[in-house]
């Protein structure tokens, strides 16, 4: 997921007409990355809970 987002940034940076458009894109990417981090944190917590139950 993160690799896809970074690739998307590099592809779009060549076609962005302005600084403002690039800033808007980067803000959107920050939101997507934060969501991905939250998802991964939730998965980590689920795995840890499972491991604790299995012990």
Concise summary:
The protein is mainly α.
Question: In words, what does this structure look like?
Answer:
The protein is mainly alpha-helical. It is built from two helices and no strands. α1 packs antiparallel against α2. The longest helix is centred in the middle third of the chain and has 36 residues, at 19-54. The radius of gyration is 17 Å and the shape is rod-shaped. The two termini are 32 Å apart. The mean pLDDT is 81.
Provide the residue-averaged pLDDT.
81
Considering DSSP H and I runs of 4 or more, what fraction of the residues is helical? over 70%
The first-to-last residue Cα distance is 32 Å
Shape, per Cα inertia axes: rod-shaped
**Pattern of helices and strands:** HH
Unreliable segments (pLDDT under 50, ≥5 consecutive)?
none
């Amino acid at each position: 997921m993160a690799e896809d987002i970074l690739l998307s940034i590099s592809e779009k940076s060549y076609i962005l007409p302005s600084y403002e458009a690039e800033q808007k894109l980067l803000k959107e990417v920050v939101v997507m990355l934060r969501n991905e981090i939250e998802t991964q944190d939730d998965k980590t917590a689920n795995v840890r809970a499972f491991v604790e139950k299995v012990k």
